[in-house]
Amino acid sequence: MQATADSTKMDCVWSNWKSQAIDLLYWRDIKQTGIVFGSFLLLLFSLTQFSVVSVIAYLALAALSATISFRIYKSVLQAVQKTDEGHPFKTYLELEITLSQEQVQKYTDCLQLYVNSTLKELRRLFLVQDLVDSLKFAVLMWLLTYVGALFNGLTLLLMAVVSMFTLPVVYVKHQAQIDQYLGLVRTHINAVVAKIQAKIPGAKRHME
């Protein structure tokens, strides 16, 4: 019963995170998505110009400059107005931010699940449990060698972030046309895979 309850809680947490991510990527709250998207872009552009250590240091200095300036401003304002409102960040200082043992265990279980699933899939591909799937994986890795030669990791990450925040909206606006072209591509790929499966002895015949 306890395991079932923990699994239900994990599903609820994952569902909540997934819902929030979808809201962000589909720009349902333009202001919130704009802040998140802009922050990601600023961080990635900074990393293209400076080292990770420098970016972290500059961000920390910017945050400290803002909080120290605000603290001094509130202190002077309280002295002039002769009020005693206390520390301007008192609410945040008293906010509970520690993770409980249950939360740590919950997130660890989620991570363990994904790691185990990934390892099993990689084992299946590298040990050629399904010849066709392993060949697909080999072709993907071969294509990635060309991608890696053209772009560095930060550029790819920047392109991925931009795509994440733009492609979902484009898909919603042009869903019919995109689905039509994707269907044609999928049909062509399935036909090619079927031909390969027919020519390779022992290949598992299945169509995704």
Account of the protein in words:
- This protein has helices spanning 2-25, 30-49, 52-81, 90-93, 101-126, 131-150, 153-173, 175-199.
- Helix 2 (30-49) packs antiparallel against helix 7.
- The longest helix is centred in the N-terminal third of the chain and has 30 residues, at 52-81.
- The two termini are 36 Å apart.
- It has 208 residues and is an all-alpha fold.
- It is built from 8 helices and no strands.
List keywords for this structure.
mainly alpha, 8 helices, 82% helix
- Provide the β-strand percentage band: under 5%
Q: Care to count the β-strands?
A: 0
Mean pLDDT: 83
> Which blocks of ≥5 consecutive residues have pLDDT under 50?
none
Terminal CA distance: 36 Å
| Global outline | elongated
How many helix segments? 8
The proportion of residues forming helix, as a percent range, comes to over 70%
Structural class by sheet pairing and helices? mainly alpha
Biggest β-sheet, characterized? none
- Topology order in helix (H) and strand (E) letters: HHHHHHHH
Radius of gyration based on Cα positions? 25 Å
